[in-house]
Amino acid sequence: MDFNHSEDRQMLADTLGRYLQQRYPIDVRNTISGSDEGWSREHWAALAELGVVGALFGEDTGGFGGTGFDVAAVFEQLGRALVVEPFLGTLMAGRALAKAGGQEALLGEVIAGTTLLAFAHEEPQSRYDLADVETRATRAGDGWALSGHKAVVLQIEAADRILVSARVAGQPGEEAGIGLFLVDKTGATLRGYPMIDGGRGGELALDNTPATLITEDGYPLIEETVSAGIVALAWEAVGVMDVLKASTLDYLRTRKQFGVPIGKFQALQHRMATVALEIEQARSAAINAADALDKDRHIRERAVSAAKYTIGKVGTLAAEESIQMHGGIGMTWELPLSHFAKRLTMIGHQLGDDDHHIGRYIALGRAA
Amino acid sequence: MDLRFSPEEEAFREEVRTFLKEKLPARIADKVRTGKRLTKADMVEWHGLLNERGWYANHWPKDYGGPGWSVAQAAIFDVESALAHAPRIVPFGVSMLGPVLIKYGSQAQKDYWLPRILDGTDWWCQGYSEPGAGSDLASLKTAAVRDGDHYVVNGQKTWTTLGQYADMIFCLVRTSTEGKKQEGISFLLIDMKTPGVEVRPIILLDGEHEVNEVFFTDVRVPVENLVGEENKGWTYAKYLLTYERAGLAGVGGSMAAFDHLKEIARSQRKGGRPLAEDPLFAARLARLEIDLENMKTTNLRVLAASGSGGSAPLEMSAMLKIRGTEIRQEITSLTRRALGPYAQPFVSEALDEGFNGDPIGPDYAAPVAADYFNNRKLSIFGGSNEVQREIITKAMLEL
């Protein structure tokens, strides 16, 4: 048994961590995340050059990673630096394209950092239900046309190509009949906006928008790539929580009230201990999910829902408690901690909250 | 035991409702209901309308311009105002300083300052916390040194809510370093326009400018602005902190916010049904509703105890503060949760009056996540909930 990353993976994580520490400190991050673009092409190119995008894909598609623990190693570092660049959308869209096959040229550009992807699947009414797709795909000449609305797509304005789910048959809620299509950003109507935790997102309005078919049987790919997305979010959350923990411990050691460091007060000691314990439980959940990503569907999905449930529950606790233990200063924009707390909270709103995933975990158990 | 309000009190409730229907500007109520930003002018306008009716200083004694309400009437007013989406009365002048001046101020101070609080001439802010004095408030360092007919003030206050609007600040200052730290504190009224006063904004995690730092450099304050006796300020400070018991639990505000949450939960959908019918979410709502119902009665019990002559025990006030803020925070947390992915977009301008853009997602989504983050302050300010817990056990254990 070995709970350390492999040597190659650790080297990549160290390189990435060093780059972010030196070139992407919190003030740089906040400037980028609040800018009109909400991301930095310069950093994206540099990170692609370091191999960070390539680590998310397998060798069969020109990458050198792509396993659950590759995703883990990368996103843990991204979390520690609150990176807003479109890694999650690139991972999810790229992974689905890789599994669909026949997209080697496009994925080559993605890994090189020259083409960016977004994954537009959720809809205003779907609330984390992966089969609730109302967007319709119809044949138009040799190709396809899509009509519908995709909701809160991360960094969609940054993307050159958007992977969009749309129904070729059946009714919303049915897993069968959901296709996957590529849409060029130039042909789509986007409405971009800032996100509360930094960076940008957007709504995608499709009105007979031309699209290229990837597959007419997209649901298994969607489910699998959302699992990878959840592994990524779980590890991003672990990275965020480690920063929150370190910052809070530092504050408990140095902030003095009543003549002593506030860490001397048992009330705060016990709360800090609980937060630290829960973070370790969350890390274990993230390890379990990364390990299960390449296993059979049933094992994978249970572990992934368990992880997202845990991250959602622990994330809220860690964010709220770290602000509380900092007192007023924890409420300020100036303190990096508040941005980490916001990001951690919003991870709970991506790809399903803890209620959604405990429900799913129960349902998957019943099906077994 | 009889939990009913008397017929007279119910008649009073109708009177409050009628007043709110007739006088509360729809424009302002709409902002409160939809979570938009209130301007200083909005707040001043509402204070003025209340004052016209004699309800602004509603817990001042009749002799000083108060309406002479019972605690039940004050509670009814709080709840009805909140349910009608009236702005909360900004407490610093009318609810905090007013009672201190009435109890401890000189006749000249009462004659001068109280009318100016009532008619809105002065906007007051509070100079209590300092960077090194938060939960340990008595360790404050801002110094006032007597120099002829003036005090010369040097130091820094922080977390000064709406200090950017203020004409005046009431400050706890150190006038002695002898003896216990509580015994060298005085209560001073300082004009914000005095040379040497500087206000710097603190931006909170939701991007809002709500609190400030206030710096004092050789600020000369006339000695007649000392309230009560020198070095007795801690007594007045504590009196001020425990005064507004009715507001501590925030019951009215939580009732209105909970109603809003239930509406959202009914309109959001999960698995083809209203979110409010999702077993997990329904259980969260039910637990919260029960806690709120219990709190309503706890609040009335505390009010009843303080109204019948005996003041409510300190630990009961602390309990109201803890659970009242926890309930409000849980409401904001569930409201955020209810939005699902649409909690993430945040267009700050959408919270300004006159914003014409289309909503992103449901029209109630815009302020929700920011409101959740902003309300993390509830368990920190006004004596953190940790400090409140110490108050409770200290009173009970008598160790």
Summarize the structure.
Chain A is an alpha+beta fold and 368 residues long. Chain A has helices at residues 7-23, 26-33, 41-50, 68-80, 87-100, 104-112, 219-254, 266-292, 297-326, 336-347, 354-367; strands at residues 117-120, 136-140, 143-154, 161-167, 178-184, 189-194, 200-215, 256-257, 260-261. In chain A, the strands form two sheets. In chain A, strands 1, 2, 3, 4, 5, 6 and 7 form a seven-stranded mixed beta sheet that branches.
The average pLDDT score of chain A comes to 97
The class by helix and strand makeup of chain B works out as: alpha+beta
How many beta strands in the DSSP annotation of chain A? 9
Question: What is Rg of chain A?
Answer: 21 Å
CATH level-3 fold name of the largest domain in chain A: Butyryl-CoA Dehydrogenase, subunit A, domain 3
What is the helical fraction of chain B, as a range of percent?
Answer: 40-55%
Domain Acyl-CoA dehydrogenase/oxidase C-terminal (chain B): 231-397
Protein name (chain B): Acyl-CoA dehydrogenase family protein
Domain Acyl-CoA dehydrogenase/oxidase N-terminal (chain B): 6-120
GO molecular function (chain B): flavin adenine dinucleotide binding; oxidoreductase activity, acting on the CH-CH group of donors
